[in-house]
Amino acid sequence: MKWFFLIFTAILFITACSGEEDYAPKPRGYYRINFPQRAYQQYQSDNPFTFQYPKYAVMERDTLSKSSGKLLNMQTLLNMQFPQFNATLHLSYETIPSKKIFDELIEDAHKFAFKHTVKASSIDEGIIRYPDRKVYGIYYTIDGNAASSVQFYLTDSVKNYLRGALYFNSEPRLDSIQPVLDFVKQDVDVMIKSFKWKN
Q1: Burial 170-188 (b: 16+ CB within 10 A, else e)
Q2: 10 Å Cβ neighbour count for 40?
Q3: Is 172 left (phi over 0), alpha (psi -120 to 50) or beta?
Q4: What's the pLDDT score for residue 154?
Q5: What is the CA radius of gyration of the chain?
Q6: Long-range contacts for 69-77 (Cβ within 8 Å, ≥24 apart)?
Q7: Contacts of 18 (CB under 8 A, 6+ apart)
Q8: I want to staple 93 with a disulfide (CB 3.0 to 4.6 A). Which of 36, 41, 76, 163 is the partner?
Q9: Would the pTM count as exceeding 0.70?
Q10: Which residues of the chain have pLDDT under 70?
Q11: Looking at residue 169, what is its pLDDT?
């Protein structure tokens, strides 16, 4: 009887372990994200531009005194903070004193966007063109696990230049931030579409 019980247990164990289903671990889970209701307000300041931005974002002057790197003495550095998403849209404004400086600013914007080539799976350029408001520029969509997913510049091609770059204050993992990125990109689009130079 003892042998019968041991043989029966062994057969039962072998049968239970020989199932044809492959075991796969569950994918990593993420917290549910509650998106705020979309609502916008007008950005007004002594800067020579205005635009609409979300009511759930906070506009702050950047505490850094001057930009490091090749961009020439930024006159205004602003941050559009998205506290609930741990993200910042960095904005930098510069007056254009000459054609040479204008060309350098455009080239720098291109270089800054393409610095992310190492981690990006693709970088697309879209033309921004609102001739009625004299707003022109390039919008860079950076796909993949790059530190910045959106960069752009806006100019009137004569005396004003504004550059923007969106960063999340966490390790860039596209699979985890994609829903938030899609949400914030729409806010960036509203900002660009409503952008106006004051002069």
Answers
A1: eebeeeebeebbebbeebb
A2: 16
A3: beta
A4: 96
A5: 25
A6: 69/108, 70/104, 70/108, 71/105, 71/108, 71/163, 72/101, 72/104, 72/105, 76/47
A7: none
A8: 76
A9: yes
A10: 1, 16-32, 63-74, 116-121, 171-176
A11: 82
Asked whether the beta carbons of 187 and 53 are under 8 A apart, the reply is yes
pLDDT, residue 71, reads 44
Report how far residue 191's alpha carbon sits from residue 52's, in angstroms, rounded to the nearest whole number.
Answer: 5
Q: Which long-range contacts (C-beta less than 8 Å, at least 24 apart) are formed by 34-41?
A: 35/183, 36/84, 38/186, 38/187, 40/190, 40/194
Give, for 154, the enclosing helix (H) or strand (E).
Answer: strand 148-155
Handedness of CA 178, 183, 184, 187 (dihedral sign): positive
Of 101, 96, 125, the closest CA to residue 113 belongs to 125
Specify the DSSP element, H or E, that contains 41.
Answer: strand 40-43
Q: Residue for token digits 């914007």?
A: 109
Helix (H, G, I), strand (E, B) or coil at 109: helix
For residue 139, report the phi and psi dihedrals to the nearest 5 degrees: -115, 120
| Eight-class DSSP state of 93 | E
3-state secondary structure of 188: helix
Whether the Cβ atoms of residue 88 and residue 169 lie closer than 8 Å to each other? yes
What gap in Å lies between CA 72 and CA 103, rounded to an integer?
12
The alpha-helical segments, DSSP class H, found in 58-125 are: 99-114
